[in-house]
Design a protein that fits this description.
Helix content is 38%, strand content 19%. The protein has nine helices and eight strands. The strands form two sheets. The protein has a five-stranded parallel beta sheet, with helices on both faces.
Length: 211
């Protein structure tokens, strides 16, 4: 069946942003310190975009800085999940987000009713866990885990999170951009292949921006 969503339509982009009501939070010096968002009639979530002091030095290495942004591809992913998999997620489907950064799509998937594991490099975990604790305190169905992209690390993740049968949905947003990430996409392919080997019925969604 052909996908009728028009992802190049500017008005569609505006309506997509309205879907999660994303807003930047800035201090008196107009420096962004966080973002707020909600989903439909759900609660307003506030997430910090500030890096820890010891993570400022490698800021321009790429991943740390990129992990503090909410990219359009993330917002599009939310729209796609809502349009095509709302029922499955609402019934408690398991979702793994790879290279999640701030984890906005995964957090919204949790608001929709999914069981969510957010993953990224170890260096971004403190920020991610802080934001989960701030917005989902006491919720056992959303967690953050470190994941280096390799088949071995996938198996460790599955064991450590008791997801031995894999995940229903595997999501990655803007994880492919060679000027910033080099050829790490090859490792991403390995990770996705391993996840599909464990659960061939898993749905893999890759959302990327065109540059």
């Amino acid at each position: 069946e052909e996908d009728s969503d028009n992802y190049d339509d500017e008005s569609s982009t505006d309506s997509c942003l309205e879907l999660i009501q994303l807003k930047s939070v800035r201090d008196r010096g107009h420096i962004e310190t966080g973002v707020t968002f909600s989903f439909k009639d759900g609660p307003l979530l506030h997430i910090s975009t500030l890096l820890e002091e010891d993570r400022i030095a490698p800021l321009f290495s790429g991943a740390e800085w990129a992990g503090t942004r909410v990219w359009h591809a993330c917002v599009r992913a939310v729209e796609y999940l809502d349009n095509h998999f709302a029922a499955e997620i609402g019934n408690g489907a398991s979702l793994l987000e790879l290279g999640c950064g701030l984890g906005v799509p995964g957090m919204i998937a949790r608001l929709m009713g999914g069981r969510v594991i957010l993953t990224d490099q170890e260096s971004l975990l403190n920020q991610l866990r802080f934001n989960i604790e701030s917005n989902f305190r006491g919720d056992d169905y959303i967690k953050a885990e470190a994941l280096d992209w390799s088949r071995e690390e996938v198996q460790k993740l599955l064991n450590n999170t008791d997801n031995h049968q894999g995940f229903d949905i595997v999501l990655n947003c803007d994880c492919v951009f060679e000027p910033l990430y080099g050829e790490s996409w090859k490792l991403l392919v390995e990770v996705i292949d391993e996840l599909l080997r464990v659960n061939p019925k898993s749905i893999v969604i890759s959302s990327v921006e065109l540059y």
